[in-house]
Amino acid sequence: MKFLPIVYLAYMFISLYFLSFYLLLYNRGRKTLFESPKLKKHFTVSVLIPAYNEEDTIENTIEAVLDSDYDRLIEVIVLNDGSKDRTVEIVKKLMKKYDKLKLLDKSNSGKADSINLGIKNARGELVAVVDSDSFPKKDAIRKMIGFFEDEKVGAVTIPILARNKKRFFEKLQALEYLAIAITRKLLERVEAIYVTPGPLALYRKKALIEIGGFDPENLTEDIEVTWHMGINDWDRKMCLDTNVTTLVPKTFKPWFKQRRRWSMGGLQTMWKYRSHIGKKDIFGFFVLPFFILSSFLGLVGLSIFVYLLLSRLIKEYLFVKFSFIANTAIVTLNDFYFTPSVLNYLGVVLFLFGAIFTLLLIYLIKENIKLKGNVFTILFYMIVYMVLYPFIMVTAIFKLIRRDMSW
User: Fold this and answer.
1) What residue spans define the domains of the chain?
2) Contact assessment for residue 263 and residue 159, using Cβ atoms and an 8 Å cutoff
3) CB of 202 closer than 8 Å to CB of 225
4) Quick one: three-class SS letters along the chain?
5) What are phi and psi of 127, to 5 degrees?
6) Of the four listed, 76, 167, 318, 406, which is most buried by Cβ atoms within 10 Å?
7) What is the mean pLDDT of residues 343-349?
8) Could you tell me how far CA 219 lies from the centroid of its own chain?
9) How far apart are CA 206 and CA 148, in angstroms?
10) Strand partners, 81
């Protein structure tokens, strides 16, 4: 067998394996997917809101956090990272209204460093981190608390929903965020949650102190801290029973930069913990290999696509060129054909599996989160939107090779 068909078959097998794996995880825990543990112990909670030039959103974020129905939220600390706009002015105005609201003002040193300062000053047993352009649901913190009854749990995350979803590009991101939320919940079944995103994550303060807090050198500190916790045997949980909304990029350019930063941070984290691959625990034996393989699977698919496209273009160019020279027909009826093959059938099966999985997510979403979608948006998401990610990964790799850490 030629090399390319072997690579293609391996790619198809791994892709189908991942899809089947997710479907099996769903079938295993579908009855409890949206359940959260009952609240027994009332932990004290400190909320940290890192902010840099967030005058447009900081007030609404603070209002949303303080509107929480959890009765032991003891303080909300805004960590001003050297803002040059009206962020501090707005926070100080709100401090006159809310006794729980505090401000830590510092020079610019990055989000992770700001959060670490907040952890040192937080009085709560649990520490929540909320992005300054995100808006937790009223019951979010309360429904997350129950997971910490298990002393092994170090972090809890929830679904992130797009707050702005009127434009077509925003709707695509809204669909993506919901798909991510469901898959993270499924991965919880095998202790494989890989990120506790910034819009809202709740941490056990003891766990954060044990691992040394957030890594200021990583572009995606929320990914790194989650992996660090996993390696140190702290469990991570996902609560689908509530959500937090966040503002998503409205246009392609900021979206591309954001996703490239995510990819760069993910690659940084994989490289940092590469020595743990193969160790006899769930993280070294499954989580690390699983995400390294899944991250680079798209690159294999992109390579196959580019190779086939270039081969086809070169053949067509040579055919047309010599057809003119030989004065023969460029196109005949014999040129319109379809040759059935195992590779073609596997491609169809892979697409159908992906469609079934996506439709399953939409069904769950409509039943529980009530996002309205349409067939065209879903198809565009599957066929075009997700295909962009391998290109993003390529640019992320080149930036890391050049040691260019700018966004």
Assistant:
1) 3-26+284-401, 36-273
2) no
3) no
4) CCHHHHHHHHHHHHHHHHHHHHHHHHHHHHHHCCCCCCCCCCCCEEEEEEECCCCCCHHHHHHHHHCCCCCCEEEEEEEEECCCCCHHHHHHHHHCCCCCEEEEEECCCCHHHHHHHHHHHCCCCEEEECCCCEEECCCHHHHHHHHHHCCCEEEEECCEEECCCCCHHHHHHHHHHHHHHHHHHHHHCCCCCCCCCCCCEEEEHHHHHHHCCCCCCCCCHHHHHHHHHHHCCCEEEECCCCCEEECCCCCHHHHHHHHHHHHHHHHHHHHHCHHHCCCCCHHHHHHHHHHHHHHHHHHHHHHHHHHHHHHHHHHHHHHHHHHHHHCCCCCCHHHCCCCCCHHHHHHHHHHHHHHHHHHHHHHHHHHHCCCCCCHHHHHHHHHHHCCHHHHHHHHHHHHHHCCCCCC
5) -125, 120
6) 76
7) 66
8) 14
9) 12
10) 106
Tell the residue number behind the tokens 């809310």, with chain if given.
98
Q: Is the dihedral of CA 208, 209, 211, 217 positive or negative?
A: positive
- Enter the tokens of residue 221: 């500190």
Q: CB of 242 within 8 A of CB of 39?
A: no
Q: How many CB atoms lie within 10 A of CB 21?
A: 14
Q: Which residue has the tokens 């998503």?
A: 248
Q: Rounded to two decimals, what is the model's pTM?
A: 0.89
User: Residues 352, 358, 359, CA angle at the centre, nearest 5°?
Assistant: 90
Q: How crowded is residue 234: how many other Cβ atoms within 10 Å of its Cβ?
A: 21
CA distances from 223 to 32, 230, 264, 272, 343 (A): 26, 11, 11, 12, 36
Q: What amino acid occupies position 273? A: Y
Kindly calculate the radius of gyration of the chain based on its CA atoms and give it in whole angstroms. Answer: 24
Distance (Å, whole) CA 113 – CA 18 = 36
Provide CB contacts within 8 A for 165, sequence distance 6+: 171, 173, 174, 248, 371
Contact 342, 336 (CB under 8 A): no
Residue with tokens 């997710």: 22
* Backbone φ and ψ of 139, nearest 5°: -95, 5
Nearest Cα neighbor of 192 from 229, 152, 219 is 229
pLDDT tens column, 20-71: 888 888 888 888 888 889 888 899 999 999 999 999 999 999 999 999 999 9
pLDDT digit string, tens, across residues 288-341: 888 888 777 777 777 777 777 777 778 766 666 555 555 554 555 555 445 556
Q: Closest Cα partner for 183 from 39, 291, 308?
A: 291
Q: How many residues does the chain have?
A: 407
